[in-house]
């Protein structure tokens, strides 16, 4: 089966490198990513743009909008990406730069880092981003749930805060990254209720197969399965690893176990092409 990884990182963020070296034990490099793709039949990915102006600064209030990808001098031809939004950098000049950036063919959406920056999804600061998303038919991906930094503020990343945005921006497709984990039941309700809200299943576990096996023996798995059943829309969910937080192979095996087999084609491939129509164009070239 062909795989699309709908959530990866490809930026020089110190915490990502530390995780790859010490927790997930993988090669956080251009070649390391290509090797994992080849071994697991990954035909395309969506990378989330994010930058830091100095080591360990993420979430970096000084980073300019749009935040891009800078792990290597070039990016793989089958990698679409979502420029990152810094709400402190949304002056007219930044918005003009963002609009120029999102017209590039490899840009498949935009990414808002809720919790990392102290603004709710419905804050008016993001209104220009939603207008651009509607104008160019691009989805907006939200970080939701736990933040991979102690500097994050969790109240801003709760998945229920996305409901208002979905209701008042029906002309925009939204993606709830990480399914709102640990508030996955709340996240499931927002996806279930709103036709324009999707979710990716990235970042639910960080580490190696050993960490996956440990989680499978806890109530974490029961909690997650309850939310997936409640959502009752497997066709609105997408596979994503949050690479380099876990290896592609390990995470594919885990997600295959928790998603009914009849929905594997949708979750691992088809839904991503529906949510990110430019990715389909990119992969057909």
TrEMBL record:
Gene3D superfamilies: Metal-dependent hydrolases. The keyword Lyase applies. GO terms for molecular function: carboxy-lyase activity; hydrolase activity. SUPFAM superfamilies: Metallo-dependent hydrolases (SSF51556). Residues 93-277 form the Amidohydrolase-related domain. The keyword Acetylation does not apply. Keywords: Lyase. Pfam families: Amidohydro_2. PANTHER family: 2-AMINO-3-CARBOXYLMUCONATE-6-SEMIALDEHYDE DECARBOXYLASE (PTHR21240), CATALYTIC_ HYDROLASE (PTHR21240:SF19). This is Amidohydrolase family protein. It comes from Sutcliffiella horikoshii.
């Amino acid at each position: 089966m062909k795989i699309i990884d709908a959530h990866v990182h490809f930026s020089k963020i110190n915490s990502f490198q530390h995780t790859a070296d010490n927790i997930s034990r993988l090669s956080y490099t251009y070649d390391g990513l290509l090797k994992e793709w080849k071994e697991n039949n990954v035909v395309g990915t969506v990378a989330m743009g994010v930058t830091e102006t100095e080591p360990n600064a993420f979430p970096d209030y000084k980073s300019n909008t749009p935040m891009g990808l800078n792990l290597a001098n070039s990016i793989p031809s089958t990698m679409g990406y979502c420029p990152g939004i810094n709400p402190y950098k949304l002056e007219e000049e930044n918005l003009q730069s963002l609009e120029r950036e999102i017209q590039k063919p490899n840009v498949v959406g935009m990414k808002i880092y809720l919790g990392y920056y102290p603004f709710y999804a419905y804050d008016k600061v993001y209104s220009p981003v939603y207008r651009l998303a509607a104008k160019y038919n691009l989805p907006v991906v939200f970080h939701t749930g736990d933040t991979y930094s102690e500097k994050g503020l969790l109240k801003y990343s709760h998945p229920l805060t996305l409901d208002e945005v979905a209701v008042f921006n029906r002309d925009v497709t939204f993606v709830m990254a990480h399914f709102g984990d640990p508030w996955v039941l709340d996240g499931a309700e927002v996806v279930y209720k709103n036709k324009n809200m999707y979710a990716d299943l990235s970042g639910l576990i960080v580490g190696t197969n050993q960490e996956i096996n440990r989680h499978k023996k806890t109530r974490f798995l029961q909690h997650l399965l309850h939310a997936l059943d409640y959502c009752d829309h497997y066709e609105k969910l997408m596979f994503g690893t949050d690479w380099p937080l876990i290896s592609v192979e390990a995470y594919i095996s885990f997600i295959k176990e928790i998603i009914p087999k009849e929905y594997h084609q949708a979750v691992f491939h088809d839904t991503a092409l529906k949510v990110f129509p430019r990715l389909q164009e990119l992969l057909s070239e």
